[in-house]
Structure formats: C-alpha cells, structure tokens
Amino acid sequence: MRIIQKKLFLSKEIEIKDKHVKLKSKDLTGSQELIIPIEEFDISRIVYQKNTDNVMLVITLIFGFFFIINILNPANYSDDGEGLIGVLIFLFSITSLCSLITYVKSKHIVLIPTLNNGYIEIFRSRPNEYEVDNLIDYLDKRIAEILKDKYGTIDKDLPIEHQLMNLKWLHERKVITDLEFEKLKFELTGNQKGTNSIGYYNQ
Length: 203
Description:
Elements: E1 2-7, E2 10-16, E3 20-27, E4 30-37, E5 47-51, H1 54-72, H2 82-105, E6 107-113, E7 119-123, H3 129-151, H4 160-172, H5 178-189
Antiparallel strand pairs: 1-2, 2-3, 3-4, 5-6, 6-7
Keywords: Membrane, Transmembrane, Transmembrane helix
Transmembrane segments: 55-72, 84-104
C-alpha cells in the first residue's frame, strides 16, 4: 500500500511492504529515504496535531482588510488613481506573502512513534483523510499480524516465563485483546502453580 503526499515544494511517499515501511521525502534542499521494520511502529501512541500560526493569520487578515477597504472606498477613485494602484499593489503583495507564510507554517499532521527513529510525520489530509486513515489502519493490522506471529506463538518447549512476558507486552501494546491474552496465557500456563527452578513461570 502506498500514498504520495505533496505540500508546496515538499513531497512524501509512504509505502508499506511485507515486513517494512519505506519512507521517502524530498524538498528543494535534498531528499531522504528511510526503511523501518513494521514491528518498530507503535500505533497505540499515535498523535494527531493541528495548529496555525495565529500571529501571521492576524497580520494577514489586517492587511487583507485594508486591501479590501481601499478597493471599495470611492474616495480613492476621485483623482487619476496612480497613488491608489501603488497602495493596492503593496497591500496585495504583503497580504499574499503573509498568507503563504501562514499556510507553510500551519500543521495538520499525524505523528507515528517508532522504537528507534523517533516520530514519523505524515500529512493528515494529503491526498485526503480517507486514504491516510486507510494507510494507518492497514499499518496497524500488519503490525498486529507480525507481532502476533513473532511473539504470540506458544511453544511448550521454551521457558514459560519469557513467553508470558511476551504476551503481557503484546497486551500492553494493544496488539491482542483481553480475551486473546487470557486464552493464550491459559494455553501457555494451564493449571500449573508456582515457579520451578529452571525459570519456568507457573501461576
């Protein structure tokens, strides 16, 4: 599964492979590519962030207001209009520049935590929220499948204590439900009691 995201001069490509996620980013200064194992992502701690630079937004609105006032003011058209044109060009330029800065500094993103690469930042609504949500849901399912296969398989020939720790870890990460956890724990420990001398954990 893959999506491509673009915002002005920045582009991102997120592709979910069988066992890893490939992340590409490119802007005017260069490009970067990361390959991260799927099991390193932790969707349970995902962060949705949306904010706007309010100072720049207010400045934009103020200059935009004066621009409109000057256009609509009949008194400005009483002479040859040469001074008005200069004022309008100035106000329009400042308003456009402030609008661009406000747009660039505004954020509507998703931060996905990883074990070794910090937070992975993707745009929330590019190309649209539906596709981004589908990507996150698919990644969540792949994480669960891989972690269950790696840490949630019961092996009677291995020490119980270590396997039980793995099950608790899966449960804490919400990879398995309460019911799945209890079922796997019972399958692992059965009716054993106490802890024996070779490191096997028994309830």
